[in-house]
Design goal:
With about 475 residues, the protein is of the alpha/beta class. It has 2 domains: about 1-145 and about 345-480, FAD/NAD(P)-binding domain, CATH 3.50.50.60; about 150-340, FAD/NAD(P)-binding domain, CATH 3.50.50. Helix content is about 30%, strand content about 25%. Strands 1, 2, 3, 4, 5, 6, 19, 20 and 23 form a 9-stranded mixed β-sheet that branches. A hairpin with a 4-residue loop joins strand 15 (about 325) and strand 16 (about 330-335).
Length: about 475
């Protein structure tokens, strides 16, 4: 059985970043990356639907140690995948990846101060086991096996094709077809303008509107800085500018939601003209940032609507007919193809079964320490990004903290570190305050956060930077031991 100092689970954006951080800051540590799929890249290799792109700028979604050099700040999926693959190759991370190793369970032994990690290899699911001193989960937050599709009545009688974006068929030809995209999130906002270039017509069917903000795909200020400053310095300046602007806008949304609402809707009215029903189709029932905002680069969604190639319908679905989608208003939307951009199926750490000293761990009953470790689970960390900013900002800080922790343990001869809930005044609250349907469906499965630090999630990069990079490790909540307990 192979043993590593650290096992990383997942070879996507977070996992590749974790490998680089380990090599640079813990050069004496052995590690491997277990990836369940046949290719690295995670989300950016899995999703292949038309127009796939990030809704975060690449100056903050990119790694802190590798400047983003391409022209578009709002990048497409293939460009992001190239960036991740290039990072893995440049740093030799690819040599540490075990592809088609799907982790099934992980068992911690305090007596041995190590994890035993079981995986299924290849199409035959051949069992294999590894041991490690520290387990770092970088497996994301949703199921890679399937997306979420509601069980609409009559789907079986629909004469056309129904596709979920997470399982986009390579042979799908929608040229000239009538397409209905169900959903109003980031995926739908991406699909509609992209498919409208070839489809006969694309209708975005939404139950309720989402806040939509247009933003240039190319950052002219960033390009100017890159022309006049060294690449690393320009990247750092733009990264911090975007971080601070994002934090300012988020706080503005929370403190002056009505003002921000009118600013956003004013932009939509300007883009679609005075005759468009913005109140019905682009005015949500909730406040800005109660759910994630949708970003449309260069206003491409608005351009598609103005051209007549796309339209928005706001109504609820009664069911499917042979011809299309039956709405509660009585209207039938005719369709040759229906795309269910209805969200992800959220799971905790890839549904890996965890046990500590023989006792199964119910992750929904644990509490997150600094948003990256779980109470009473030793030598274990999770990369989980921000809900109100780029994923990689928090993942980078988490990797940095894990390396600090490993080096601290090595210097002092510790073999085990465990977050302990010793403060009885800390109350458990939901892990995230978001009203989105895909979050609410799964919130009970996820670990809770606490009512105060270090168990509180701030969703604030500046605060986390101070806490994770410079805060004390011996803070009273982390229990360090030098030898395994019987």
């Amino acid at each position: 059985m192979e043993h590593f100092d650290v096992l990383i689970v997942g070879a996507g954006l977070s996992g590749i970043g974790a490998g680089v951080h380990l090599q640079q800051k813990c050069p004496g540590k052995s590690y491997a990356i277990l990836e369940g799929r046949a290719r690295l890249g995670g989300t950016w290799d899995l999703f292949r639907y038309p127009g796939i792109r990030s809704d975060s700028d690449m100056f903050t979604l990119g790694y802190s140690f590798k400047p983003w050099t391409e022209a578009k700040a709002i990048a497409d999926g293939p460009s992001i995948l190239r960036y991740i693959t290039e990072t893995a190759r440049e740093h030799g991370i690819d040599r540490h990846i075990r592809l088609q190793h799907k982790v099934i369970r992980a068992a911690w032994s305090s007596a041995d101060a190590r994890w035993t990690v079981e995986a299924a290899v290849g199409a035959e699911a051949t069992p294999v086991a590894f041991t490690c001193g520290f387990l770092f989960m970088c497996s994301g937050y949703y199921s890679y096996d399937h997306g979420y599709t509601p069980d609409f009545a009559g789907m079986a009688q629909f004469a056309g094709r129904i596709v979920h974006p997470q399982a986009w068929p390579e042979d799908l030809d929608y040229r000239g077809q009538r397409v209905v995209v169900i959903g109003s999130g980031a995926t739908a906002m991406t699909l509609v303008p992209s498919m409208a270039e070839q489809a006969g017509h694309v209708t975005m069917l939404q139950r309720s509107p989402t806040y939509v903000v247009a933003r240039p795909a190319v950052d002219k200020a960033a390009d100017w800085l890159r022309r006049h400053l060294p690449g690393g310095l320009a990247y750092a300046l733009v990264r911090w500018r975007n971080v601070l602007l994002g934090m300012y806008f988020y706080q503005l949304c929370k403190r002056q939601p009505e003002r921000v609402k009118q600013l956003i809707l004013g932009g939509v009215r300007q883009a679609l003209g005075p005759d468009y029903d913005v109140q019905r189709h682009f005015t949500p029932r909730y406040k800005p940032w109660d759910q994630r905002l949708c970003l449309v680069p260069d206003g491409d969604l608005f351009t598609a609507i103005r051209s007549g190639r796309a339209s928005v319908v706001t109504d609820e679905i009664a069911g499917f007919t042979a011809e299309g989608v039956q709405l509660c208003s009585g209207t039938v939307l005719p369709a040759d193809l229906v795309v269910t951009a209805t969200g992800l199926d959220l799971v905790v750490i890839g549904n890996v079964q965890v046990s500590v000293d023989g006792a199964p761990v119910t992750l929904g009953e644990t509490m997150t320490y600094k948003g990256m470790m779980y109470s009473d689970v030793p030598n274990f960390a999770v990369a989980f990004g921000y809900t109100n900013a780029s994923w990689t900002l928090k993942a980078d800080l988490t990797c940095d903290y894990v390396c600090r922790l490993l080096n601290h343990m090595a210097r002092h001869g510790f073999t085990q570190v465990t977050p302990r809930r010793r403060d009885p005044s800390v109350q458990a609250v939901p892990w995230v305050d978001f009203s989105s349907g895909y979050i609410q469906r799964a919130v009970a499965k996820f670990p809770k956060q606490g009512s105060k630090k270090p168990w509180r999630l701030h969703q604030n990069y500046a605060r986390d930077l101070l806490s994770l990079r410079y805060g004390r490790l011996a803070d009273g909540a982390l229990e360090f031991t030098r030898q395994a307990k019987a």
